[in-house]
Design a protein that fits this description.
Blueprint: E1 3-7, H1 11-23, E2 27-31, H2 34-43, E3 48-51, H3 57-70, E4 75-80, E5 92-95, H4 100-111
Parallel strand pairs: 1-2, 1-3, 3-4, 4-5
Helix pairs in contact: 1-4, 2-3
Length: about 120
């Protein structure tokens, strides 16, 4: 079971993705703001973080920087809307149109890139 930090400002979307990740066996912490993400980062070590497109770019990048400082082995999945700029800290990128199951597949892939059987 991986510890996943799910960050975004759209509660319904986070809940849907959180439920899918939990069903896939992951432990999920939700952060509905950058401040909530910073607090979670200071209290836990995460295996994966999923950063939603609803998080403003500067906040998303600061969350990513703090994650990599606190948890150097963390994998970062960024969900993008139209622009891919400032995504260099991402281990995976998925579009905003991604379903909850596609988020699960991206998380599983960054955790186990050689094991394609864990599709969620």
């Amino acid at each position: 079971m991986a510890k996943v930090l799910l960050v975004g400002y759209i509660a319904e979307l986070l809940e849907e993705r959180s439920n899918a990740l939990r069903t896939a066996g992951h432990q999920v912490t939700l952060a509905l703001s950058a401040e909530a993400a910073y607090q979670a980062i200071s209290q836990e070590v995460f295996d994966v973080a999923v950063l939603g497109y609803s998080v403003p770019e500067t906040e998303r990048n600061e969350v990513a920087r703090r994650l990599t400082r606190h948890s150097p082995d963390v994998k970062i999945v960024m969900i993008y809307f139209a622009s891919l700029k400032n995504t260099e800290l991402a281990d995976a990128l998925i579009p905003t149109t991604a379903s909850a199951q596609e988020v699960v597949r991206a998380v599983n892939h960054v955790l186990n890139p050689d094991d394609q059987s864990k599709t969620g």
